[in-house]
Amino acid sequence: MTPSASVAAFPAEKLMPDHWPTHPWDWIAWAEFSYPFNMSWNPAASVPCGFTSTGLPVGLQIVGKRFNDLGVLQAAAAFEQLQPWADKRPQL
User: Are 41 and 78 in contact (CB under 8 A)?
Assistant: First the structure.
């Protein structure tokens, strides 16, 4: 398990947070928890796990062994059962 990202949520139309320096490959610094698993072919799922102090959503990334997609989905479903966030929305 890892955080889904190392920065708080930012607008979907942006490629990186406003405070981030702009040059190629900037996303690596704030997406360092996700891209390695894409490259290693490890299945991963991001599930909501709370909100920042300013009300922005935070994600938990669940990573599994290679080819264990079912195990990752089962772990994500179990977490969502214990921590039901489906009906929660950020307080903006």
Answer: no
* Cα gap 39→53, rounded to integer Å: 32
Q: Which residues of 56-73 are buried (b: 16+ CB within 10 A; e: fewer)?
A: ebebbbbbbeeeeeeebe
Cβ-contact 34, 61 below 8 angstroms: yes
**9-15 own/partner pairs: CB under 8 Å, 24+ apart:** 9/52, 9/56, 9/57, 9/58
How many other C-beta atoms can be found within 10 angstroms of the C-beta atom of residue 85? 17
Instruction: Give backbone dihedrals phi and psi of 78, rounded to 5 degrees, phi first.
Output: -65, -45
Q: How far is Cα 51 from Cα 21, in angstroms, rounded to an integer? A: 25
Give residue-wise pLDDT tens across range 26-73. 667 777 788 888 889 999 999 998 888 888 888 999 999 999 999 999
